[in-house]
Amino acid sequence: MTVPAEAARRRIVDLFLSSEERLLQRWTQLSGASPGELRDLYQALRTALSSEDGDFADVRGLLAELSRARVRQGHTPSDTARLVFSLKEALYEVAEADGGPEALRGFVWFSRLVDDLGLYTFESYTAAREKIIIDQTEQLLELSTPVVKLWEGIVAVPLVGTLDSARTQVVMEKLLQTLVDTGSEHAVIDITGVPAVDTQVAQHLLKTVVAARLMGAECVISGIRPQIAHTIVTLGIEFGDIVTKASLADALSYALSRSGVEITGAARTRVAVRAERA
Amino acid sequence: MERVPILKLGDILIVSIQIDLDDQSVLALQEDLADMVVSSGARGVIIDITAVEIVDSFIGRMFSTIAAMTRMLDAETVVVGMRPAVAITLVELGLSLGGVRTALNLEKGVAMLEHVRGAAG
Fold first, then answer.
1. Which of A179, A190, A251 is nearest to A215 (CA)?
2. Is A136 found in the same domain as A7?
3. Do A179 and B88 touch (CB under 8 A)?
């Protein structure tokens, strides 16, 4: 059994190596890929098949690179895999023209090889796409959680966008760490930019406030829009003794007065100054 | 078993936890602290947990127990220097340490004790 299989393998490799132009032309036609890419792939395959140990590392490297490029260009995974699989059809035509039983038997072996490479392409495609998604998620997390200092001892977190567990966790950790680093005793969590508050989001907010309290800081939640207040009450969420304010300005003035800063009729003075200038 | 040292500064007792607490050390600390409060007539206790990285529910409950105990002896307890990770863990464990005063660091803890005593007369 071994000898015919070996012979069949040699025959199909010979066919593959000898009919370069024909294969490439047909392959390009079937896959719709650029002849340049396919030529590179063909050369890598030729080197791998001619070598003694059958090392396909170069071919795989090329395929991975090709998959990554295709992910960025927005091709579908099927398109990308079809590019590899269409080599089978091109080679089959060559094998059929040869007509020998060895060529056809060898084609089965070759077909399995191409299947493996095709699956590898598919995997590379998925891996590349996963990586893009993970990168974007991380970027989103970094972008969306600034902690800003409003006053000596007062920090604020303006939350924008939908809150989920992962994001709240990041916000929570970042806020608490900032409290430690800056020695701030007051924090304002502003949820003006949060489109909806459900029980889960409220739970996360409550946890953050309690954690800050455990560390010795006080948290105020601000920016609660009328419809959100309505939702919270309808859902029956209890904020307990946590201070909530309608706007960031209210929260700041509350935090200032709690930390002992006095505000003396600032609004009136400003009007007076403007009147003097006019 | 390692024992946690208790330092006296004026009428404040300072407990700085620098070791990995096991249940035995926690129980010993509670006893030692009660003895110290009585013998020194301290009016305030500060527990500094800046160096504590891992807590469980038993240690979490220790803070409440100590606070309740010292209050019986007319001394206020402040827990200071809790790390964010520790705070998050305690919240996830469902312990909100009701009745325990907290401050960001030792300095603010001392200031808080003075403020509390000032208010009490």
1. A179
2. yes
3. no
Question: In this complex, do A211 and B87 lie within 8 Å of one another by their Cβ atoms?
Answer: yes
Shared domain for A170 and A232, answered yes or no, is: yes
- The residue whose two tokens read 């207040």 is A229
Q: Which residues pair with A218 in a beta bridge?
A: A186
Contacts of B84 in chain A (CB under 8 A): 172-173, 176-177, 179-180, 211, 215
Q: Is B35 helix (H, G, I), strand (E, B) or coil?
A: helix
Tally of CB atoms within 10 A around A216 = 24
Note whether A134 and A161 are same-domain residues.
no
A245 and A117 together in one domain: no
Q: Token match 């909806």: residue?
A: A196
pLDDT digit string, tens, across residues A186-214: 999 999 888 888 888 888 888 889 999 99
Q: Residue A221 phi/psi, 5° resolution?
A: -100, 125
What lies within 8 Å, CB to CB, of B8 at 6+ separation is B14, B36, B40, B42
Calculate how close chain B gets to A220, using CA atoms only, in Å: 17
Q: What is the pTM of this model?
A: 0.64
Say whether A211 and B91 touch across the interface (CB within 8 A): yes
Residues A64 and A188 in one domain: no
Residue B62, judged by CB atoms within 10 A of its CB (0-12, 13-18, 19+), counts as: buried
Domain range enclosing A161 = 148-264
What is the distance between the terminal CA atoms of chain B, rounded to a whole angstrom? 41
Domain B6-120 has CATH 1.10.1240.10: no
Provide the pLDDT for residue B110: 93
Say if CB A240 and CB A229 are below 8 A apart: no
Each residue's pLDDT tens digit, A22-52: 888 888 888 877 888 888 888 888 888 887 7
Helix (H) or strand (E) holding A154: strand A154-160
Of the residues A171, A177, A180, A214, the best mutation for testing chain B's interface (the one with the most B CB atoms within 10 Å of its CB) is A214
Whether A255 is in a domain gets the answer yes
Name residue A5's amino acid: A
Side chain identity at residue B72, one-letter code:
M
Any chain B CB within 8 A of the CB of A217?
yes
